[in-house]
Amino acid sequence: MIDAFIDELDLQALGFTRAQPAATGRPAYHPAILLKIYLYGYLHRVPSSRRLEREAQRNLEVIWLIGQLAPDFKTIADFRRDNGAAIRATCRQFIVLCRSLGLLSGGEVALDGSKFKAVNSHERNFTCAKLAKQMAKIESSIAGYMEALDQADRMDDETTRTQVERLQDKIATLRERMQALQAISEQLEASPDQQVSLTDPDARAMSTSTDPSGIVGYNVQAALDTKHHLIVAHEVTNVGSDRHHLTSMASQAQAAMGTVELTVLADRGYYAGEEILECQQAGITALVPKPLTSPAKAEGRFGKQDFVYEPDDDTYRCPAGERLTRRFASVEKGMTIYVYWTTRCAGCAFKAQCTTGRERRIRRWEHEAVLDAMEERLRARPEAMQVRKSTVEHAFGTLKGWMGATHFLTRGLTTTAAEMSLHVLAYNLKRVLGILGVQPLLAGIKA
Ligand code: SF4
Fold this sequence. Notes:
The protein has helices at 2-7, 11-14, 31-43, 49-58, 60-65, 73-82, 84-100, 128-155, 158-190, 246-257, 273-281, 295-298, 351-354, 368-380, 384-403, 413-436, 438-446, and strands spanning 108-117, 125-127, 195-197, 204-206, 215-225, 231-237, 262-265, 284-287, 308-310, 315-317, 323-332, 335-341, 362-365. By secondary structure, the chain is of the alpha+beta class. It has 4 domains: 2-82, no CATH class; 106-117 and 204-289 and 376-417, Nucleotidyltransferase, domain 5; 123-197; 295-369, no CATH class.
């Protein structure tokens, strides 16, 4: 299967380096050979280049697959590092094949993001707050040792002389550590997001829903077709929040599936007005539930959802039946916001349940009709979030299971992205083999 699929690809068009041998010098390994080793390795959970080097020498399947060649681990690792974009294009090519085999729904994807650990421990990741805390701790330790040193100096006998030497060593070690932290502090100031990771400079500390201490790693975005749960688009980012990925991921899925109209199902983390508007303008129908963040509701008062918008006269009807009219507009973070209120609040029987101010004000984004329409669509499809969950979440679980406890093996955004693309290709291939079987897939590849 691997042999047939890769032999059918136009590797030069996909962007692989050395697809055409140079006119002079010893020919390099053809990218098809290295891609076959990697795809075999990722399908069989052997992603390490050193282990793949050994497999190429002792595993009969690999020996057959690559025609008894034996590339060393560095050649194998360099191929993954240097061909990230081409490996990603190969993933897209596989989705084109799935499309031609009728395996895609053609119109609906579920989107989600998950945090994957990088090769960078918590101890080697720094934020300003963490650095300040560590520096304060070292300063206090140095002050403690200095005090102990003063006391020991005053006593001046044989025992205390050894103690003094020990204390001086400790202070010297702490001062060295302090200097190292000061160097990191300079790096932190130069870093745009005020974060520094020492082992993998692109990795970032991110919070997760399951681990309160969070992880140092990458946020992997994936859009899966709801028919057979194939990953049609993926992206590795070092931005912890999902909020700004809706349009870019949905557009990538739309292009991969070759469809004009697409519905994207995403969780509350993707709710952002501008993104939902952009999706609508690109012909993408977003279904994203609104986050429950109303402070008024949390404090037991009426939330915005208790006020009904009347589009005919551009007013809000409040729980007391009063009309809140549009008073003024303001621009906040580039968004035009209209503010509505009524002058009848002072004498209202519900005022205590409604506002702590003089009157209750309701704010409306100029494009809020797009969000209202989305809420209507969500009401009409109560199962949408269940479909999203059952489509996308198990894929991340499977990928993490394959990757093991440490997740990524490589460092840097570009190389980890190539690593993830190989996992995604292996995941999709395995899934299609499960759905169709080997012979129909082989026939599809050769068609
Ligand atoms: S306080 Fe004002 S906005 Fe609130 S229910 Fe009463 S009249 Fe309506």
